[in-house]
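Hypothesis: this fold can be encoded by more than one sequence.
Test: take the structure tokens below, design a sequence, compare later.
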């Protein structure tokens, strides 16, 4: 087993991995950005290293900085968690080549094979795993999209090779949309995955999203740990995950599980992973009826990493997936047979995000956890890294934590989940807890007949607004000044973090953090230092960002003449492209942003005179 593992991630997943390491008597190393100096994963680790400024590209995504931190810490393994570098085959290869450091995950070759969606489709097809009708080679011409749609029917899905979670996927409803949507998908693929290759496939109108958890070792042993149902989604993003699926018979779930095993074996895959499928729903199916053997199901993709919702599988199987990731990476063989894997009861996972569901799930722009009192009791698990009094860091995502509930069956799981959500007290930021409470009383969800389209196309949005008013707050709270101000100063020697605690009494918080008072400055908003951003110098009307996000493209230059409604730039937020348009005509006096830059809500983008 390893001596010391560096976790190349942040937040709750970093703490989750560190806890598994602690139980295996393995030392832990955190990496952190300037924005995350006070974050929970830094507190939990045995030691921590600063890898750069707030911008992810300059810190958590910096290959050399992360590997150098591992060398400084004398870590002999790196675990990537999920997100950031977790599915980056280039980074995995660099770790594999580094002397004395082991990559905890599938090999870079396997990641590259299965990360490229067209290649993964070929592997699965050769292994006898059903795939959605589509191309196995990249598509570059809009005419290919039109011809495919005429042959297989519209709508057609255009998907980025390196995409996932809806990012880089565009839907073409008729031939006229082919060119614009193809370019949009290629642009997102290039911006987020450094790969503008895309493929096309038939778009299933109302499927269920079923995924199978896989473990595989270097001796060729492959085990599936049952399925999770992730059909409750918003804009292709999972909202509530559960296992086992409330819609499948045992015969169908075994067929899907064995298909996942075949595909993973054919790819010579090792470590943990998830094989995702789309299952065709019967629109006439009623509550209590199940989808049986003979139901069409299709391979979607392989996630070559641990997933957010791995906790569901851990609860119903009793298998610690993260520990097995460590063991397999250390060369151990899986210690249980497929027949030993049993499913006990039912589990659900709720992502507790700092978002306002009543406002299209708009993420919080920041705030302080004035009250943070998570639930407990039998069958209740919390995976989090935050504590009461912590500031929410919004530079990366909006997740506060994950609530996982386990019970003897689905009915009890729903009741227990409602109890836990009622107990969960958070003040200072708006969260999605009211939305989760609403869904647990929603007729379609309770009956298990919902599909991936339910939230976006069928649910009455006014119900979400009513739930937010009844059980939640409308706006983020403001941080109040305190008579006692607690500060953590940091000293870095050769990049390694040391902490000094200081308690100031009788000093207002605003004064303590002001200039000349010697207090530590709070983390700046997304983008890190304010000195790196361009200031408004031109006269005219400022066009500002309506939400936090990333600039995908800038469509104007200084001196251009624009009319009302013209697109100035494209802003990606919440996995969606948003056109930023001119509200009135004029001349572009100043452009303050560039492609790939992160912006906060209210940041000036363009000045029009």
């Amino acid at each position: 087993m390893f001596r010391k593992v560096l976790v190349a991630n942040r937040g709750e997943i970093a703490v989750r991995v560190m806890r598994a390491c602690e139980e295996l008597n393995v030392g832990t190393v955190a990496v952190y950005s300037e924005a995350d100096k006070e974050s929970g994963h830094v507190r939990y680790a045995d030691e921590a290293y600063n890898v750069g400024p707030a911008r992810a590209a300059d810190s958590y995504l910096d290959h050399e900085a992360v590997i150098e931190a591992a060398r400084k810490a004398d870590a002999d393994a790196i675990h990537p968690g999920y997100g950031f570098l977790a599915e980056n085959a280039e980074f995995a290869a660099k770790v594999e080549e580094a002397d004395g450091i082991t990559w905890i995950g599938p090999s870079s070759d396997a990641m590259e094979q299965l990360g490229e969606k067209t290649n993964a489709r070929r592997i699965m097809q050769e292994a006898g795993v059903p795939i959605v009708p589509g191309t196995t080679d990249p598509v570059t011409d809009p005419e290919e999209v039109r011809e495919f749609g005429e042959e297989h029917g519209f709508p057609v899905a255009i998907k980025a090779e390196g995409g996932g979670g809806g990012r880089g996927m565009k839907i073409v409803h008729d031939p006229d949309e082919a060119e614009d949507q193809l370019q949009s998908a290629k642009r997102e693929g290039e911006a987020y995955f450094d790969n503008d290759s895309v493929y096309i496939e038939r778009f299933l109108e109302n499927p269920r999203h079923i995924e199978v958890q896989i473990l595989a070792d270097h001796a060729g042993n492959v085990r599936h740990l049952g399925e999770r149902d992730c059909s409750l989604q918003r804009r292709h993003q999972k909202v509530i995950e559960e296992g086992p699926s409330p819609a499948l018979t045992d015969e169908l779930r075994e067929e899907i599980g064995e298909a996942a095993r075949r595909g993973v074996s054919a790819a010579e895959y090792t470590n943990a992973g998830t094989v995702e499928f789309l299952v065709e729903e019967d629109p006439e199916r009623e509550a209590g009826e199940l989808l049986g053997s003979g139901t069409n199901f299709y391979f979607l993709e392989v996630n070559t990493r641990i997933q957010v919702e791995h906790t569901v599988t851990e609860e119903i199987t009793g298998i610690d997936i993260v520990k097995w990731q460590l063991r397999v990476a250390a060369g151990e063989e899986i210690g249980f047979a497929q027949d030993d894997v049993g499913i006990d009861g039912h589990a659900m996972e709720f992502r507790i995000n700092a978002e306002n569901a009543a406002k299209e799930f708009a993420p919080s722009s920041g705030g302080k956890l004035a009250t943070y009192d998570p639930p407990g009791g039998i069958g209740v698990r919390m995976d989090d890294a935050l504590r009461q009094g912590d500031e929410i860091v919004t530079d990366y995502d909006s997740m506060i934590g994950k609530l996982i509930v386990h019970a003897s069956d689905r009915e009890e799981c729903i009741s227990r989940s409602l109890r836990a959500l009622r107990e969960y007290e958070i003040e200072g930021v708006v969260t999605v807890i009211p939305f989760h409470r609403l869904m647990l009383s929603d007729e379609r969800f309770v009956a298990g007949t919902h599909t991936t389209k339910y939230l976006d196309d069928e649910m009455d949005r006014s119900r979400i607004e009513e739930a937010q008013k009844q059980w939640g707050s409308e706006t983020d709270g403001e941080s109040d000044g305190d008579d006692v101000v607690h500060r953590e100063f940091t000293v870095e020697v050769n990049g390694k973090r040391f902490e000094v605690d200081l308690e100031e009494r009788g000093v207002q918080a605003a004064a303590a953090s002001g200039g000349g008072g010697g207090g530590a400055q709070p983390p700046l908003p997304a983008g890190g230092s304010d000195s790196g951003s361009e200031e408004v110098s031109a006269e005219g009307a400022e066009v500002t960002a309506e939400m936090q996000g990333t600039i995908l493209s800038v469509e104007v230059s200084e001196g251009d003449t624009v009319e009302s409604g013209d697109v100035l730039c494209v802003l990606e937020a919440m996995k969606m492209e948003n056109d930023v348009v001119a509200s009135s005509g004029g001349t572009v006096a100043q452009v303050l942003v560039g492609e790939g830059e992160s912006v906060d809500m209210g940041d000036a983008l363009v000045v029009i005179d």
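The first strand starts at residue 4 and ends at 7. Residues 478-482, 507-532 have pLDDT under 50 and may be disordered.
Hypothesis status: open.
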